[in-house]
Design goal:
The chain is mostly helical and about 260 residues long. It is built from twelve helices and no strands. The chain folds into two domains: about 45 residues; about 210 residues, MetI-like fold (Orthogonal Bundle), CATH 1.10.3720. The longest helix has about 35 residues. The model has no long low-confidence stretch (mean pLDDT about 85).
């Protein structure tokens, strides 16, 4: 039978699969080596386990909170706030970017202010948000949106402005309206920029939520970090940091899956 795949192509595909396995193995090795070295350093007293904790103590703290169910409350609160903040900043960022692309005068007026707002430390603005909105979960979500929306707007707007001008002129030549140009040319061409903005926004939303929880929350991983540091339960602090890393990774993988799906489409 005729084989549609040549030997060279098979070798190339095999090389790609081997490279992917090596990358995965290296990532797993780094994680195992890190935790092993951390545990060993605590056992041998190279570091103070009371201050830096150790993986075994973190695991014990996690199983204890898993047993009484409190970990689900804290993870659920933080994850829910992050998803809401991420969704609002994505929708708001996309709408504002489209508005600024549509109105050149408005873009020229507001663009310097967006850059200035992006450079401001969001932790300094969080207390103002809390005073305006109140000591509640809405302040946490608002802090998350404030932290990520400006970056989202700048990244998406840059993608809109970099769309091939010849394609836009071609649609205009055939009588296309500005709305049709946005829908049929700008948005499809800017999908990579939008996805990259989402990847950045995921991490920033987590940062905003944790900052908000530091100040006002009564539950959540940010609350656990603050409370654990105050009562010197560093196991809770390190456990919360690890869970945050895991949640951020899962959300990032979700965005990457959406990117892959859009790429295929």
């Amino acid at each position: 039978m005729f084989d549609p795949i040549s030997c060279e192509h098979r070798l190339y595909l095999k090389k790609i699969r081997t490279n992917k396995r090596l990358i995965l193995s290296a990532r797993i090795f780094i994680i195992i080596a890190f935790f092993s070295l951390w545990e060993l350093a605590a056992i041998l007293k190279w570091i103070d386990p009371f201050i830096f904790s150790q993986p075994s103590r973190v695991f014990t703290a996690f199983t204890n909170m898993l047993r009484d169910g409190s970990i689900f409350l804290h993870v659920g609160v933080t994850l829910g706030e992050t998803i809401v903040g991420f969704t609002l900043s994505t929708i708001g960022g996309l709408f504002i970017s489209a508005l600024l692309w549509w109105n050149t005068f408005l873009r020229n007026v507001l663009e310097p202010y967006l850059v200035v707002l992006n450079s401001l430390p969001k932790t300094a603005l969080a207390p103002i948000i809390i005073v305006l909105i109140g000591n509640n979960v809405n302040s946490v979500i608002a802090t998350a949106v404030m932290t990520s929306i400006i970056v989202t707007v700048l990244n998406i707007l840059t993608g809109f402005l970099e769309v091939d001008k010849d394609k836009i002129k071609l649609v205009e030549t055939f009588g296309g309206t500005k709305r049709q140009i946005l829908q049929k040319v700008v948005l499809p061409a800017s999908i990579p920029a939008i996805v990259n903005a989402l990847k950045v926004s995921v991490g920033l939303s987590f940062v905003g939520v944790i900052v908000g929880e530091f100040l006002v929350a009564k539950a959540g991983l940010g609350y656990l970090i603050v409370y654990g540091s105050q009562v010197f339960k560093m196991d809770w602090v390190m456990m919360s940091v690890m869970i945050l890393c895991l949640l951020a990774t899962l959300l990032y993988v979700g965005v990457a899956a959406v990117e892959k799906r859009l790429g295929r489409g």
